[in-house]
Amino acid sequence: MFLAGQAFSQIRSVKIQDFNYRRFEGSALSLQIKASYFEKQPDESFSAKNLELVSPKKGINIKSKLGFYEKKKELFHFRGTVELKTDKHGDIFTEELFYSVKEGVLRAPGRVLIKKDGMLLEGSELYYNLTTGEFSLKGKVKAKFSL
């Protein structure tokens, strides 16, 4: 199902099975949101099951069992087996992830695993600024390497 941005914002409340939304800049895909179940609120916030957010321009693909979007804060909240694939930093696994669209920042406040090029990193907090490229893993960081 494809809904144009303007038409979508005029819908007060909606519940959709197998939701698929795409936004383009010119002919290039700038954002895609997919969910097995999607519920939009009158304030344009939403909740979703099996949520996937893809932003080729930002180099990210996020999947989670549950997802929420707060329109006023421009904040995505992903919960339950969250997988973040990045073009630059590998595959990241956590249980909770926040994506502030306004700030261009991803934050995971809990246990984080990162897999990249035969390396496995584990930490207790992730910060990734998509605009500046700043990427940090905090807490007691552990690393395993495959040779």
Can you characterise this structure?
- The structure is a single chain.
- The protein has about 150 residues and is mainly beta.
- The chain has one domain: Lipopolysaccharide (LPS) transport protein A like domain (lipopolysaccharide transport protein A fold).
- The chain has one helix and twelve strands.
- It has one helix spanning about 5-10; strands at about 15-25, 30-40, 45-55, 60-70, 75-85, 90-100, 105-110, 110-115, 120-125, 125-130, 135-140, 140-145.
- Strands 1, 2, 3, 4, 5, 6, 7, 8, 9, 10, 11 and 12 form a twelve-stranded antiparallel β-sheet that branches.
- The longest helix is centred in the first third of the chain and has 6 residues, at about 5-10.
- The N and C termini lie far apart (about 45 Å).
Short account of what is shown:
This protein is mainly beta and 147 residues long. The chain is built from one helix and twelve strands.
